[in-house]
Amino acid sequence: QGVAGPPGPMGLPGVKGTNGPPELSGYQRVGGSCGSPVTIAKNAAYTCNVTCPTGKMVLGGGINQANAADSLTIVTGWPSQNDVWSIIVRNDDNKAGTYSLAAWAVCASVAP
Q1: Which of 9, 15, 104, 107 could disulfide-pair with 52, CB 3.0 to 4.6 Å?
Q2: Where are the alpha helices (DSSP H) in 45-110?
């Protein structure tokens, strides 16, 4: 076999492909009252779940305390299921307390 020759000229561009389906659509913020007002026993935890509408997945979420108190600790927030955002709060006070809690989930349709 002989020595390789120089590279040839660049070819023509290919035909543009079609756009794929959107990866993310139908963004929606879903709120939940967490049963507010809710009484939480001293040193006890309370869980609140917010569920996305059918066919949507949870992307994130959060919680708001209307009557914020130093004794109420936000322990965690996580996607406990594909369509559910869960939060856990704990009353670190030495007595029961009544709180106004609201949680929300950020939901959307996600392409497989």
Answers
A1: 107
A2: none
**Spatial separation of the C-alpha atoms in residues 51 and 72, rounded to whole Å:** 23
93 phi and psi angles, rounded to 5 deg: -80, 165
Tokens encoding 18:
């079609």
User: DSSP assignment, residue 54?
Assistant: T
Report the predicted TM-score, pTM, of the whole model to 2 decimal places: 0.76
Where are the extended beta strands (E) located within the chain? Answer: 24-32, 38-40, 45-51, 57-65, 72-81, 84-91, 97-99, 101-110
**pLDDT tens-digit series, residues 13-59:** 999 988 877 788 999 999 988 888 899 999 999 999 999 999 999 99
